[in-house]
Amino acid sequence: MPGGFSLRLAACLLFVNVLALEKRATGEEVVDFYNVIAPEGADPWLWFHEGQYYAAVTTGGNITLSRSRSLSNLGAGERKVVWSSSPGTPVDKNLWAPELHRLGKAWYIYVAADHGDNANHRMYVLENQADDPFEGKFVFKSQIVDPNHDRWAIDGTVLKVGEKLFFVWSGWEGAEDLRQNLYIAPMSDPWTLSGPRVEISRPTHPWEIQGGPPAVNEGPQVLVKDRLIHLIYSASGSWTDAYCLGRLTAAIDSDLLTPASWKKHDSPVFETAHGVYGPGHCSFTKSPDGREDWIVYHSARHQGAGWKRLIRAQPFSWDAGGLPQFGSPAPPDRPIRIPGGEPARQRYEAEAASLAGSARIARQTSASRGAKVQLSGAGDSSLTLVATVKEAGAYVVSIRYLNASERRGTATQTLTVDDGAPHGVSYHFTGPDDWSNAFISVSLKAGPNRIRLSRGERTAEVDCIDVTPVEKRNTTRRSVLILK
């Protein structure tokens, strides 16, 4: 009798272990994500075109576009340098906040640049006649300027009302860096102003002047709903945790070149909260299914990080009066629902993986299930999981991580799938409790795939790993400025 009981107990334990291994092999299907869509970047701009998000951020030395079918996995997008300036020209340094627009039958990129002296920052336009901005060639078109006020200018964007075009940007009133105002001017074509600049906003509220001088209004972005135009702009110093968003609103049939047509909201519409610091310089887009409105913005990687930033995104709504309601930055330690139309993903907890060498499990309340895995820089430290997928194809692996290295340097790991070629993984410094995401594009075969993280430099701490299929869609929905 005792022997029979032991056999039955052993069989039960074996069955339980098989179930546990099977669960670990398949992961947990989820429809949410932890809200970092790119681990580095500032001044994000997105344009949705024929089923893909085309994105640009400030790189400083060139203009790089990326494209992705997923908003939540934007950091894994294909990248291409589409323009680099020639040395010795007025536009060869400090390229800031590029924006990609489809106007008529051409693509235009608006970018601020100088020749090494910030006082010489001006706005410039590039043009590409191809149907796809990744094809053809962007060529320098012109400076876009009010010739009677050729002053410092950055963060230019285009407002289209019917067939009329307006240019909106941030600039100095004179030749000194005392204050950044918002200006608007009419356009006769995508590269030419047809009238003088008109000031529509200057920083006056306490929440607009933190970190100054200079006091700052910058990064204007356009939202249109029903008969209202909203300019969502950034205020206070971008180098501070006080960076935030404000709002100007005008009736669509008003004289937009009259300052009195624009009404400023008295308080910020989006600001530091829930451990997200300095949210600002946003843009707007739709979910892949076209049903949801999303704000995409940069924030500091951690408190006091200044210009070291990452990109986040979250949905927003509208009130009965047609005003956008952004709420607060989503708490970074709580996942939010994936954008509508994106596929579900498999989530694997790092502490459930197979560990080797000096890799070890540690507790942390901000981790997804209260635990993380510490991967040291030692060569024997590794983490291995088995991802089982139904179809062979392209996938994105997103890794939720911490890097709290004493020297604040970038940590690295090597990711391999089965015995395939290694993929380098970089983990920017985050501090001890400010999680970020790293993104790697991989090919997986149908069935089980062994994914291994190993051979790192400095310690990286991994919370969970998401595996998401890259969908192929043929939608032709376009862009982002006119919502609902």
Automatic annotation (TrEMBL):
GO terms for biological process: carbohydrate metabolic process. One of its GO terms (molecular function) is hydrolase activity, hydrolyzing O-glycosyl compounds. InterPro entries: CBM6, Galactose-bd-like_sf, Glyco_hydro_43, Glyco_hydro_beta-prop_sf. Keywords: Glycosidase, Hydrolase, Signal. It comes from the Bacteria. SUPFAM superfamilies: Arabinanase/levansucrase/invertase (SSF75005), Galactose-binding domain-like (SSF49785). Residues 346-468 form the CBM6 domain. Pfam families: Glyco_hydro_43. Belongs to the glycosyl hydrolase 43 family. This is Family 43 glycosylhydrolase. It comes from Singulisphaera sp. Ch08.
